[in-house]
Amino acid sequence: NKQLLKGGSKKGNFCVLGNLSNLSNDVYICEGYATALTVYLAFEQSKAVIFAVDSGNLIPVIKVLKDRYKNKVFINCADNDHTKKPNIGIEKAKEIKNNLNVNYTYPDFINGSDFDDLRQEKGIDEVINQLSNIVVEIEQESKEPNILDTILEGVELFKNEVNEPFATLENGNTVKINSTLFKDWLIMAHHKQTDK
User: Fold this and answer.
1) Which of 39, 54, 128, 137 is the most buried (most CB within 10 A)?
2) Residue 2: alpha-carbon gap to chain centroid
3) What are phi and psi of 100, to 5 degrees?
4) Residues 39-51, mean pLDDT to the nearest whole number
């Protein structure tokens, strides 16, 4: 039964799959339980996954989480309501990114709208693949160059034939964006820029 308790408080409340204290530093946030469970299983129960019940409760929940777990990195697993105009799931994800600086990912190439729909349509391996596609939006309006823009200058970003994200670095090496090699390179490049 997906119904909430009559008279129960929803705003800012959430449920957790996994352990927020002991698991990895990145925490994934979903609207509903089925999506959260799919994401949790895709990561082989190695990451904490939150479900907020619905899109209207995402912002209150994220505010509570960011205040309580300051050292965690939160990623919004947005719904992709591609059959609707506007696409409410993606619009909400952009709003959260702009207001709370929480990056997001969403399922693509599906008939449904969420990661559980993707699992039912294409299997858990495709869910795992697409969860690596975190959207990091870069402010285009700033007159000052964004540090990420500067770091990524000369880096070619692309996806392969199975939609996995890659980067070709200035030295010609091609690495997966969700790999340790890319993360290490990004940290070193950031230090070089900020030490100038």
Assistant:
1) 39
2) 24
3) -120, 0
4) 91
Which residue carries 């969860």 as its tokens? Answer: 131
Average pLDDT, the chain: 82
Q: 3-state DSSP call for residue 156?
A: strand
DSSP structure string for 159-180:
E-TT--EEEE-TTS-EEETTSH
Which amino acid does the sequence have at 37?
L
Give the pTM.
0.66
User: What's the whole-number mean pLDDT along residues 103-124?
Assistant: 93
One-letter amino acid at 159 equals: K
Q: How far is CA 177 from CA 49, 102, 170, 174, 181, in A?
A: 22, 18, 14, 9, 8
Q: CB atoms < 10 A from the CB of 106, how many? A: 25
Tell me how far apart the alpha carbons of residues 132 and 65 are, in angstroms, rounded to a whole number: 22
Question: Which residues, at least 6 apart from 183, have a Cβ–Cβ distance to it below 8 Å?
Answer: none
Q: In the structure encoding, which two tokens stand for residue 90, read together?
A: 């993606």
Would you say 4 and 52 are in contact if contact means Cβ atoms under 8 Å apart?
no
Q: Which residue has the tokens 């997966």?
A: 176
- Going by C-alpha positions, the residue among 79, 103, 63 that lies closest to residue 31 is 79
For residues 92 and 56, give the distance between their C-alpha atoms in angstroms, rounded to a whole number: 9
